[in-house]
Amino acid sequence: MPSCRLAAALAPLAALALLAAPAHAQAVKAGKWTPIFDGRSLDGWTPKIAGYPAGENYAQTFVVQDGAITVSYAGYDGKFGGKFGHLFYKTPFQAYRLRLNYKVLDPALPDTPAWARSNSGVMFASQSPQSMSLGQPFPMSVEFQILGRDGAGPRPTGAVCTPGTSITFDGVKAKEHCVPSTTAPTIANGTWTSLELEVLPSGQVTQKINGAVVHRYAGVALDPTDSFAAVARPYFETHKATEGYIALQSEGHPITFKDIEVQELR
Fold this sequence. Notes:
By secondary structure, this protein is mainly beta. It has two helices and 17 strands. Helices cover 11% and strands 35% of the residues. The termini are far apart.
């Protein structure tokens, strides 16, 4: 029949249109790259350390040295004591690209948990520091995890962890709290490393290390069933969706961050 022949003739064009639609839907407009760290001070950044109120930089955990934000334990009298900390930028972001350079330093404090050795991260889609409870060790957020070498074996960096949140891979909710990258490198401590994060308006998230993609996922959401959510129950009572704060982590192992810039997307 002519209608069947016409449909058959149009089918390839329809297929091309379907293929083109997602690309059009993903098109974004990018603003200029803007530094969010001035290289001289912690202006615009708020510390939140477990056991202390937002704004109190216990023992000068976060300091500026040689143009970089450094997690320092010089004032800790040799013990970490579970004082997990985060340094939050003042402005929340929803769709953006973040880029920075980091270097894992040595040594860790002696009582740093074994899993936290050569371990730090960049938290995003995070609650604000003011909304955290006094003793809360981690903000409800997504973590672009930073791992340095710890021992002779491989230890790829670039995992994604989800304290109080959930994510999806190809539409399927991740079951693990931390999902390692299968493509990321193991990077020796003392090595400057490039980290890039992209959060599209569509919700797709891409993590890169040294320019190479190490993770891609979507569906970031608060998850009151997560094991980390118990310490933030009041937060879940007043919040139904993730916020957009970015924070640098202190987990008992020194690290330094520099060249921190954001490019907003729409």
